[in-house]
């Protein structure tokens, strides 16, 4: 019994794969060139995430519920 060969990717898939590859390569170049800036940005994102969690926790402890929805995804968080 012969199996069917895997279909070739479409033009759109090829373009998306190429774009993602180039984006990852550019990110690697930026990280390698500017390690301190990269660490600073990552630290900033971490601080913002912790601050958001802290605010939601404080609101919850005060009895205020937060209902947050991410637009166009249908994802909602009750905190």
Describe the structure.
With 79 residues, this protein is mainly α. The protein has 2 helices and 2 strands, in the order ααββ. The protein has a two-stranded antiparallel ribbon with strand order 1-2. A hairpin with a 4-residue loop joins β1 (67-70) and β2 (75-78). 0% of the residues are buried.
Keywords for this structure?
79 residues, mainly alpha, two-stranded antiparallel sheet, flat
What are the secondary-structure elements, in order, as H or E? HHEE
**In percent, how much strand structure appears in the residues?**
5-15%
Shape: flat
Number of helices: 2
Head-to-tail CA distance between termini: 56 Å
Quick one: how many beta strands? 2
Helix content: 55-70%
Structural class: mainly alpha
* Uncertain segments: none
Strand order, sheet with most strands: 1-2
Give the gist of this structure.
The protein has 79 residues and is mostly helical.
Task: Record the SSE blueprint.
Layout: H1 11-33, H2 35-61, E1 67-70, E2 75-78
Antiparallel strand pairs: 1-2
């Amino acid at each position: 019994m012969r199996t069917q060969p895997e279909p070739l990717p479409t033009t759109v898939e090829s373009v998306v794969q190429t774009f993602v590859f180039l984006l990852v390569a550019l990110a690697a170049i930026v990280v390698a060139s500017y390690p301190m800036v990269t660490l600073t940005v990552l630290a900033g994102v971490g601080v913002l995430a912790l601050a958001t969690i802290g605010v939601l926790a404080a609101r919850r402890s005060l009895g205020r519920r937060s209902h947050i929805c991410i637009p166009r995804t249908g994802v909602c968080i009750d905190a």
